[in-house]
Known about the structure:
Blueprint: E1 5-11, E2 15-22, E3 27-34, H1 44-59, E4 66-73, E5 76-78, E6 83-87, E7 92-95, H2 97-105, E8 109-113, H3 114-125, E9 134-139, E10 143-149, E11 152-153, H4 186-189, H5 191-204, H6 208-217, H7 222-230, H8 234-258, E12 262-266, H9 274-287, H10 290-295, E13 297-300, H11 307-320
Parallel strand pairs: 1-4, 4-8, 9-12, 12-13
Antiparallel strand pairs: 1-2, 2-3, 5-6, 6-7, 9-10, 10-11
Helix pairs in contact: 1-2, 3-11, 5-7, 5-8, 7-8, 8-9
Amino acid sequence: xxxxxxxxxxxxxxxxxxxxxxxxxxxxxxxxxxxxxxxxxxxxxxxxxxxxxxxxxxxxxxxxxxxxxxxxxxxxxxxxxxxxxxxxxxxxxxxxxxxxxxxxxxxxxxxxxxxxxxxxxxxxxxxxxxxxxxxxxxxxxxxxxxxxxxxxxxxxxxxxxxxxxxxxxxxxxxxxxxxxxxxxxxxxxxxxxxxxxxxxxxxxxxxxxxxxxxxxxxxxxxxxxxxxxxxxxxxxxxxxxxxxxxxxxxxxxxxxxxxxxxxxxxxxxxxxxxxxxxxxxxxxxxxxxxxxxxxxxxxxxxxxxxxxxxxxxxxxxxxxxx
Length: 322
């Protein structure tokens, strides 16, 4: 065992994922606990501290080897003061996470947005392969993102850098977004956005594999559409190419401004793999400065659900000179 061990914590709306992680980035042990949303989330940190202590004993991790705790949390975060400005799905508002968890664990605690730390995890031990300039995009229910430049997370003035899903006017006119605007990237490139595009398409042109699936299920998922596109269903291909055109346009403009070495695509939609990357690269290169289009690598995330805890451990290590 490495003499330096960090606790990576990834707080989600359903579960809290935790891991003991060596200073080299290898996971020693990982586990999860249910997220207790009662009492406005005020029980969660005590439960995190208790499970860390319990697992130290179970896995034989010496207390003097634990150096710090890194925490990824959803919502808007004041990383300087270590507090949660607001995490709607958890119930936290103006919540002093760092202060409370340090008292509970007697360890230094460092926090950041969960999407930022997933990006950091992919940079450190995943598809980023150590790229210091990296853009990570998560295509799930929404579209999340994290930006690293020079090996550091970019937070911006209000700590909200990386809100890639809310780049607007990607789809002219466009569908309403949960943020209150219309035409956001999230409405056309997320799993829910791709599903919506597919349902709209099938209502206009009823034929092929998508029609068969829609008749059986009375709905469509992004997976249904991507699977049909892989089988060369014309309507599914049209929908996926449309979504990747929107995404390629947005990422190209970001790349022209940020010049990342690597763009990492994660989330449920990314399970389409190289099929998705090939379509995305074609659209991406239409809009980039040629040199940037040539040099930027687009890769599928490799860490899956471990990205958040690994990124959280990276944050702890960075802040303790481990």
